Amino acid sequence: MGDDKLTQLRIKIDAIDRQLLELISERGRCAQAVAQVKAETNPDSAFYRPEREAQVLRRVMRDNRGPLDDEQIARLFREIMSACLALEESLKVAFPDPEGAFTGQAAIKHFGHCAERVPMATIDEVFREVAAGAVDYGVVPVENSIDGVVSQTLDSFMDFALIICGEVVLPIHHCLLACDSSSEPVRIYAHAHTFAQCRQWLDGRWPGIERVAVNSNTEAAQRARQEPGSAAIASVMAAQSCDLDILAHNIEDRPDNSTRFLIIGKQAVPPSGADKTSLLVSMRNQPGALRTLLEPFYQHNIDLIRVETRPSRTGISRCVFFIDFAGHREDVSVRTVLHQLSELASDCRVLGSYPEEVL
Question: Are residues 7 and 77 in the same domain?
Answer without folding.
Answer: yes
